[in-house]
Specification:
Layout: E1 3-7, H1 13-26, H2 46-50, E2 55-61, E3 64-73, E4 82-89, H3 98-109, E5 112-118, H4 123-137, E6 141-146, E7 153-160
């Protein structure tokens, strides 16, 4: 499955918003949130659309969207670098290598310090990110359990060099 991996363009944001709805629904059993009167969870993508400090990336196979990644400034365990704000691969494309490929693309686009977090009850995501981070930086990462503050869960800290893949 050849993938197209790129920063999101203006025409991608409608699909990105729809994939975010699927993502939030899928996590609704471990992420307490309510849909609005139109049965939408909603997610404000405006700061990612501007792309100054927040970034959106998409993965496509032919013309079909496969997934997305949202990148924000580091804020949970670090004061500089990047935070993987949201990351999602549609179920049909999971276990195909699409998640690893998208993650590698995002890390290569944003070298430097990183933190990637998963909710404490999201064991599948924890396993995915442990494998993925190890594929990118080997054993050169630290894993923390964050128990205080606005975001809580498991966090991997690492640094991606220029030209990573």
């Amino acid at each position: 499955m050849p993938l197209q991996l790129r920063k999101a363009q203006s025409h991608d944001f409608a699909a990105l918003a729809q994939m975010l709805e699927l993502y939030q629904y899928e996590l609704s059993d471990i992420w307490p949130q309510n849909a609005d009167a139109q049965a939408r969870y909603g997610y404000n993508l405006e700061r990612h659309r501007r792309g100054d400090r927040f970034h959106a990336h998409v993965a496509l196979s032919d013309s079909q969207y496969v997934g997305f990644a949202l990148v924000a400034p580091a804020a949970v365990t670090r004061q500089d670098g990047h935070w993987m704000e949201q990351f999602f691969i549609l179920k049909r494309y999971r276990r195909s290598g699409a998640g690893l490929a998208l993650a590698q693309h995002v890390f290569a686009c944003h070298p430097g310090p990183w933190e990637v977090g998963q909710m404490s009850d999201n064991h599948q995501a924890q396993a995915f990110w442990r494998r993925t981070v190890a594929a990118v930086v080997g054993c050169q990462y630290t894993e923390l359990q964050v128990t205080q503050g606005g975001w809580r869960g498991v966090v991997q800290q690492f640094t991606v060099g220029c030209g990573a893949r």
